[in-house]
Structure formats: structure tokens, C-alpha cells
Amino acid sequence: MNLVRNEGPAMSCEPPQKKQRQDDGAKGTSAGRTLAVLGLGNPGRTYERHSLGARVAAAVAEASAVAVESTNKDLEGAVWLGCGELKKDWALILQPQRPINENGPQLHSALSDLNLQDAPFLTIVDDCWLPLGTIRFREKGSSGGHKGLEGIEASFKCGQNYHRLRLGIGGKNLKEFVTGSFTEEEESLLQPVLAAAVMAVQAWLRLGPEASQKAGVDASCSLGKVSRTKRCPVSSCIVGHVG
Q1: Compositionally biased, Basic and acidic residues: which spans (predicted)?
Q2: What structural domains and CATH numbers belong to the chain?
Q3: Is 149 helix (H, G, I), strand (E, B) or coil?
Q4: Out of 50, 108, 146, 163, which one is annotated catalytic?
Q5: pTM of the entire structure?
Q6: Which of 18, 30, 120, 133 could form a disulfide with 223 if both were Cys (CB 3.0 to 4.6 A apart)?
Q7: Residue 224 CA neighbour count, 13 Å, CB half
Q8: DSSP 65-116
Q9: Residue 147 CB: number of other CB atoms within 10 A?
Q10: What is the pLDDT of residues 94-143, one digit of tens each?
């Protein structure tokens, strides 16, 4: 799949290290601030519906070659990605290393290990209540019964006040469905959805949480024939809905 690369000026500073205290992570420092992105899912189960968020995070991470230095298993596979309009910020891109119900504790453990407990974060999550192909950005809200999001709420003081990118998978809220794999037909239809989701995450990292929240993402990506298209302000791409 051809994805949009996060091109831009080279980074002029080193990524945060474990022993480098980041008490003001949410406000930033003279060298920029650190953001975090976690793609929810089950480790080693790439193509199941419940791991769609992890697939998007992995695609975003392809633009980076800076591995996180840590012995913490919760940071396994994590990378640093330069971001921000002036490339002064860093994004920590995380892959699930625990079952999806424990993705929240994993995120908390990873950020704590790097002294980034207050860093703003974005979660990328599957949503069975949205039609396949829908991408919806929210700056806060309930878990909708998603155990992974419930784990986030229980692990952080912010509760439900954190950003999430919800990716519709359709179907029903049944374990057999969400832990099942996409059909061959669904996989082919997912390609533009994945590409648009990657662009939305890149835009969140480039603009920052505050500007992204103001702009918002609430639209459906194209699956085949597109109608009622509109421009998505955060991902800066044309999206629409099957019709």
C-alpha cells in the first residue's frame, strides 16, 4: 500500500530519553514537546478487526527509523517520529504488546518509563458501531463498550478526556466478530481507509492536539464508488461515503 510519508525538514534535536525528565511534557520545552500515539489491538494478530488501530500505527511508524531505547517490554517495537510544523516535536508511536484489554496499562507503563506521564496522546481504535470505512475523530467521549478504551480510562487521570481516532468495522459487538479476520473483499476495500487514517494521524501530529481538536475529523472514507464527498480538515484529504 502506498502511504503518504511524513516528509519535512530534518530533526535538529535528539528524541527524549528515559532519564531525561519531561515533567512539562504537555506544555513542551524549548526543544519541542512529545506526543504519543497508540494503535489498539492484540499483539501478533495483525489482520483481525480488533487490531485495525495497530495496523494504522504500524503504517505511520514506517516513516521512522529511530527505535526507542528501553528494556521495558511495553515499549517493544516503539519508534520516535519527528513531527510538528517546525519539526521540533517528537511523537512516540506504540504498538500493542499486551492483549487489547490491557492496552491502557501498557500505554501508562510506556509513558511512565520515559517520564512522559503528562504527554498528550492519541489512540487509534476499531469501532463496531460505525460502518466499515468510517473515520471519526473525537477529543473525548465514552468507551462505547470497547474494553481497550475502558482500560485507557482506568489507567489515566484524564478519564474520558483524551483524543481518539475511531475506525468503523461494522458488524456487531460480539467477540467472535471483532476478533475475527477481515474477509478478502473487506481487505481490498480497506486500502483507502488505511491510507486516509494514516493521513489523519500525521495531521494530528503536524498540527498538534489543540489545532486538531478545533478542526475535527468526522467523515467517511471511500469504499469503491464515492458520493457526498467533502474535505476533511484534519487529514487534508478527500473523503466520502459509499452511496
Answers
A1: 16-26
A2: 34-242 (3.40.50.1470)
A3: helix
A4: 50
A5: 0.78
A6: 133
A7: 8
A8: -EE-----GGGTT-EEEEESTTS-EEEEEE---S-GGGHHHHHHHHHHHTT-
A9: 17
A10: 999 999 889 989 999 999 999 998 889 999 999 988 899 889 888 766 65
